[in-house]
Automatic annotation (TrEMBL):
Entry's Gene Ontology BP terms: DNA repair
Protein name per the record: ATP-dependent helicase Lhr and Lhr-like helicase
Species classification: Bacteria, Pseudomonadati, Pseudomonadota, Alphaproteobacteria, Sphingomonadales
Keyword ATP-binding assigned: yes
Gene3D superfamilies reported for this sequence: P-loop containing nucleotide triphosphate hydrolases
InterPro entries: ATP-dep_Helicase (IPR052511), DEAD/DEAH_box_helicase_dom (IPR011545), DEXH_lig_assoc (IPR026362), Helicase_ATP-bd (IPR014001), Helicase_C-like (IPR001650), Lhr-like (IPR017170), Lhr-like_DEAD/DEAH_assoc (IPR013701), Lhr_WH_dom (IPR045628)
SMART domains xref list: DEXDc, HELICc
Amino acid sequence: MDILPPVLEQWFAARDWTPRVHQRALLAAARRGDHALLVAPTGAGKTLAGFLPTLTDLIEQPTDRLHTLYVSPLKALAVDVRRNLLTPIEEMALPIRVETRTGDTPSDRKARQRIKPPHILLTTPESLSLLLSYPDAALMFADLQTVIVDEVHAFATQKRGDLLSLSMARLQRINPGLRRVALSATVADVDAYRAWLAPDGDIDTVATVLGEAGAEPNVTILIPQGRVPWSGHSGKYAASQVMAEIAAHQTTLVFCNTRGLAELIFQELWSANDANLPIAIHHGSLSIEARRKVESAMADGKLRALVATASLDLGVDWGNVDCVIQMGAPKGSSRLLQRIGRANHRLDQASEAILIPGNRFEYLEARAALDAVEAGERDADDFRAGSLDVLAQHVMGLACAGPFREEEMLAEIQSATPYSALTPDAFASVLHFIEGGGYALRAYDRFKRLTRDADGTWRVSHPRFIQQHRLNAGIIVDQPALAVRFANGRKLGTVEEGFAAQLTPGDSFFFSGMALEVVRMDTSDLVVRATSKQARIPSWGGTRMAMSTRLAERVRTFLARPDQWHRFPPDVREWLDMQKLRSVLPQPGQLLIETFPHEGRHYLLCYSFEGWNAHQSLGMLLTRRMDAQGLMPLGFVSNDYALAIYGLKPVTDPKSLFSADILDHEFIDWVEQSSLLKRAFRDVAVISGLIERQHPGKRKTGRQVTFSTDLIYDVLRKYQPDHLLLKAAWADARARMTDVGRLGDLIDRAAKTMLHVSLDRVSPLAVPVLILIGREQVAQSAAEDALLMEAEALVNTAMRAD
C-alpha cells in the first residue's frame, strides 16, 4: 500500500534519496482512507510526506478539479511551501497546478480560483473560511480529497483552530469521503490532537505516524566572561559575542520573544557589526514588502543573520541556516525545539543552537529547557471548548453561502470537536445574537443580520450584510495602529496607537532596523524620516510569553536540589548558596514568601514561578487587598519567577492576603473596573461581526472601533449582563489576558504550602526582581547610571553573609 508510482520512485532515486518510513506510512494511511497525524522532527520531510499521497493520487488518477487544500498558520509558510512543492512537480514534469490564496492574493486571481481552482491550493484558516461563504463553495469543494493542516500545534488550541475545525466540518459535509491530515514537530498529547482532527472526535479514525528521531541537537548556553547578569531579559550584553558567532557561521537566525526586543537586539548587533556583515530584521509589524524582501534575501543566501520573532519560527525552510540563537529565555521546551529545528533543516545533521539568558533566573530556565529537550518533554497543550464569537462568525459566513436549517447546522457544528458539547440552547443563543444583536440591541436594524422564515429556514436579512461579513471576517484582531510611512508614501509597517500617542514631531524611535524621526502624524499615518538622533524602542501591547508550567516545575526542582548545582556557573552557584544561607530555597510545590525592610520601605516577595501575566494580575489583587487592610502599598513589580510588592507598612500575616475568595470578589471587581474586560469585549465584538473593522471604501481607525465597542459594552453591562458577547469576553479575559488558570492554582495551594520567612534585609533571590523597580520607563544616560549604582548596592547588601 505504500508503493510509489514509478515517476516518483525515479525522482527519489535521481536525488539519491529513499522515502523515509513515515513518508511511506502516510501514503499507506491514505490508501486505506484513514485520517492521519504525523509527528516528526524538523528536517524529516513532513511537508513532502503530507503531499506524497496527493502527488500519487494525481499521477494515478488525473483530474481537473481541486484535490488538496493545504492550510498553514502563516502566509509566508504557504508561499514557501509553494516554492518548494513546485520543484519536484517541475522536475517530474507533472501537469499539477499549485497556487496560494491568502489575504495578499490579488482579487482577480481569487475570483478565477473559485471558477477554475488549481489541483492544490495553499491557504490560511481565514481565507478558507471566506471561500466557504460563497454560494459556489459546494461546487468548488465537491471533489476535494484531502485537507493538510501544517504546524497544527500553532493554532489547534486557539481561536484560529476553532475556525479551522468548523470549516473542516463544512468541507466534510460537502464531501463525506474527505481525508484530514495534520503535521507537527512538537506535540505533547497525541490523542488530544487526533481528537481535534477527527470528524466527531473519533480518534480511532486517525492513524498516528511518528517520524524517526533525528540527530541530537547541539545546544549550548552562552555565558559572557563567565558571569550571568543579575537582571534584564534581552541578552543584549552579549551583542559582540553574538556577532562573533554570526561571523563564524554561514547564516544565523537570532530569535527574540517580542517585536520590541527584536528591534533592540538588531540595533545592538548593528552597533557591534564591525565587519559590516549583511543582517536584517523580520517581525509581524513590518510591511508585507519589507518581509518578502527579507525572506527572499534569506532564501537566496544573501544574509548572514536575521533577527526575528515568532513570525519565523514555523516551517519556513531555509537550508543554509546553520545556527540558531535564542536571545533571552525560551519560555517553553516545545518553542525551543521548534526554533532549534530551523538550523540545518536536515534530519541526519545536528542542529546548532545557542541560548543567551538575560539574568540568573533565566539561566536556570535555559538549563531547564535544555534538560526538557534532552528528555523529550514537550509543553502541555491546553485544549478548551470552542469560542462562541468564532462560532457566530462562522455561522454568518455559511449563511452568506445560502439558507440553512437550524437542526442540520447544529449537527454539523457538533461534529467539530471544540463544539461537540454545544447544546441546542447555546446554539439558539448564538443565532438569536446574529438575528438582532441580543435583547438590548434589538431596536437597531444594523444588528439584524439573520432572518428566520416561517418554515424555520435561516437566511441573511439583506445582501449588504454579505459584503460586510466578507470585508470584516477574520480571527486575528489587530490592536489600534498607525501606519509608519516616509513622506513619499512608502510604508514601513505599523506601530500601535498607544505608542504613537507618546510621540510628538521631532521624537525618534527605532523601527525596521532604522532610526526614524517623527515629521507629523494624523488619524491613520505616522510620517517619518531617517535620522541619526538617539532613538527609543517602540512598545507593542499584548500578552507576554510566560514560562511554561513544565519549565517552571524544573526550575523549582533546581532550587531544591543542591546536588544539581555543579552544572551551573560559579556565580549562579554562589547566588543560590547565599540564598540557602541567609533565607531558604523553596521546595517543589512550596510557596515561599519573604518579607524584609529596604531603604525605608517594606517588601513582600512571592516566589510562585507562575509567569509574568499571572503575577501582574496577582499584584493588582494583593495591592487592593493590602490597601483595604491599611498596609499602604506603593506599587509592585514582577517577572516570570516572582512578584515584589513594596509599601510603607510591613506585612506580618501574608496568609490573610492569599485567601481563596480573592478570585470570587476582588478579581471580579478589578476586572470589571479595569480596561481588561473592555479590551476583551472589543476583540469578541469584532470577531463575532457585531462591529465592523472595514466599511466599503473605508477602513475604521482603531480609535473608532474602540469607541463603538465601549458604547455597546456599557449598554450591555447595564441592560443585558448575560449577553453572549459579555460571556465570551469574560472567557477571554480569564484565560488569555490574566493566565487566571495558573493564578487560581497558585491561590489554591497558597494556604497549605506557604512558607513565610521574615528577614532583616533583602535576600539574594529577591535581587533580580527588585532591580526592575525604576526600570518600568526607558531610562536614559544619567538616570541609567543611577539605576546601575543602585543595583550594585542592592547586590552587595543581599550577598553579604553576615
